[in-house]
Design a protein that fits this description.
Layout lengths: L35 E2 L5 E3 L5 E7 L7 E7 L2 E9 L11 E4 L5 E6 L5 E11 L1 E7 L22 E10 L9 H18 L5 E6 L3 E2 L4 H5 L2 H14 L11 E6 L17 E3 L2 E4 L4 H11 L6 E4 L12 E3 L20 H6 L15 E6 L17 E4 L7 E5 L16 H5 L1 E7 L20 E3 L20 E2 L4 E2 L5 E9 L8 E8 L1
Parallel strand pairs: 1-3, 10-11, 10-12, 10-13, 13-15, 16-22
Antiparallel strand pairs: 2-9, 3-8, 4-7, 4-9, 5-6, 5-8, 14-15, 16-17, 18-26, 19-20, 20-21, 21-22, 21-23, 24-25, 25-26
């Protein structure tokens, strides 16, 4: 991955030893405003909540390698170097991803011209340096970063910052904020089966220095200036504290043309969310983004449920049954793959199946503060064949909240008569991932057991009948197993509803 050198060894004997130490430059210097690095000169990197990059020129210089070192500060970053444009997820960039900010990348055979290095992640106070003609770094990285494999806390505290403009007050009153946050709190209590605490505090309303029209066509200025206002209150919006996120709420920002599509949508990335649709469903959805999860997506396999090759792609929002997909507005259940990220159930509740047999699966979407309330297991985990690095989460849900009072439900019959299959650790680093960022990992991909059945041009509608129905078979394309729902029973719409699934391990 790092060419012929060992990036974790700063004393590689095959090259002149790099005995320099990477000092904590941010302790004595302000963050650099320059977009390039020069040989051997460390700089303080501006704080970032996604990424920050530098170019390195080797024009007409005899440079055979560049050793990039980073260290110090707060956060957790990945260092990526490339001689062919800016590093992007899924490309052949050289990457160093260890716990913390101490990283080393050695770029062999750099281009005679512009080369690039990118610091990806959430960080501040980081020093970085480029050393020409070195194949060892100034630092020794620690343990390999396992990736965004789970949320580390059993709680979330939200610091709410209401904003108004001199020409426009905020219609989302304190009483309304509290009411919607209370709904979100109850939602998280039920989703977590009583294992997650959701709290908040509301700061005094802040008046921005300019009218809303100033920001309507300058979203970057809006983000910069509201963050300055938050810093003035003594809170760092990029690092508000453990198990804590910042919530910014205001009237919608965007061109005054009456079209919501041109306004900024509510959005989030750790550890901050912007809320412009003043509803508990939006708050819950964006809070999960701010805790590190992406949308609940769909796996588009063309004429197949899953190909296991380049014919597969990702369809954003396509889990139509899920809060993090198209079920956001009605506070639908979070899928088991994502609940696993939060550690909201045990391995006994959702066992990993390694033996062929028939397993009874109870619905998982009737949780309260007392637990999931089902009399047995609420899901199955199955490993793919081959390397077994991909995991399937099998779930049974019989309630689609948006259709409870519908005289002609569309999705509910498929849910009642089948199982939903979500796959993780597949296509995580492809360009298909919307808003790709280092903290988004283990995207849940809903498989469509009845592909190409949509009746309209709206692509996610094809997933209305995604569940694998009784008497249908799905086989892992990596030859790990097959599953076959055989019967259902219990009382639909309750925690006692069940479905039997026959599993054959290959």
């Amino acid at each position: 991955m790092f060419g012929s050198t060992d990036p974790t060894d700063p004393t590689n004997p095959t090259d002149p030893i790099n005995t320099d130490v990477l000092a904590d430059i941010c302790a004595t210097q302000e963050p650099t405003t320059v977009g390039s690095l020069t040989d051997g000169v460390p700089v303080c990197v501006p704080a970032a909540s996604s990424k920050h990059g530098f170019s390195v020129s080797t024009f007409n210089l005899d440079v055979t390698s560049i050793a990039f070192s980073s260290a110090h500060g707060l956060g957790n970053l990945t260092l990526a170097g490339s001689a062919n444009g800016w590093p992007v997820a899924g490309d052949d960039s050289i990457r160093s991803s260890h716990v913390g900010n101490t990283e080393c990348v050695v770029l062999n055979q750099p281009k005679n011209g512009w080369n690039n290095v990118s610091l990806e992640g959430l960080f501040k106070g980081v020093s970085v340096v480029a050393d020409f003609n070195k194949t060892s770094c100034r630092v020794t990285p620690g343990a390999v970063d396992p990736g965004n494999d789970g949320y580390d806390y059993d709680r979330l505290h939200v610091i709410v910052y209401p904003f108004r403009f001199p020409n426009k007050d905020l219609s989302f009153t304190t009483a309304q904020i509290n009411a919607e946050m209370e709904i979100a709190k109850q939602y998280f209590t039920e989703q977590s089966y009583g294992k997650f605490t959701f709290t908040w505090e509301i700061k005094n309303k802040i008046t921005m220095p300019s009218n809303s029209s100033v920001y309507d066509n300058d979203k970057a200025r809006w983000a910069k200036e509201y963050k300055e206002q938050i810093v003035n209150t003594g809170v760092d919006p990029n690092f508000p504290g453990e198990a804590t996120i910042v919530m910014v709420t205001s009237e919608k920002i965007g061109p005054n043309d009456g079209a919501d599509l041109t306004a900024i949508n509510s959005q989030a990335g750790p550890p901050l969310m912007e809320i412009y649709t003043h509803a508990a469903s939006t708050i819950a959805h964006e809070a999960i983004h701010a805790m590190g999860l992406q949308h609940a997506m769909g796996l588009e396999g063309g004429n197949s449920t899953l190909n296991g090759n380049a014919n597969d792609s990702i369809l954003n929002y396509a889990n139509v049954f899920d809060l993090m997909g198209m079920g956001g507005h009605t506070l639908e259940e979070i899928n088991l793959a994502y609940k696993n990220y939060f550690n909201w159930f045990s391995d006994t509740d959702v066992p990993t199946i390694t033996t062929s047999g028939t397993y009874r699966l109870y619905t998982f979407n009737h949780g309260t503060a007392s637990g999931h309330n089902a009399p047995g297991i609420i899901g199955l985990k199955l490993k793919s064949g081959g390397t077994g690095d991909k995991t399937y989460f099998i779930e049974y849900r019989t309630v689609e909240k948006s259709e409870i009072n519908s005289p002609s439900p569309i999705r509910t019959p498929f849910l009642e008569n089948g199982i939903s299959i979500n796959l993780i650790n597949y296509l995580d680093n492809t360009a298909d991932i919307i808003n790709n960022a280092p903290w988004y990992n283990h995207n849940s991909l809903l498989l469509d057991a009845t592909p190409n059945s949509r009746s309209s041009t709206w692509a996610p509608e094809d997933f209305n009948d995604a569940p694998l129905q009784i008497n249908q078979t799905f086989t892992d394309p990596w030859n790990g197993f097959s599953i076959y729902p055989v019967a259902k029973g219990g009382t639909l719409g309750t925690a006692n509803a069940w479905i039997d699934v026959q599993v054959t391990i290959f």
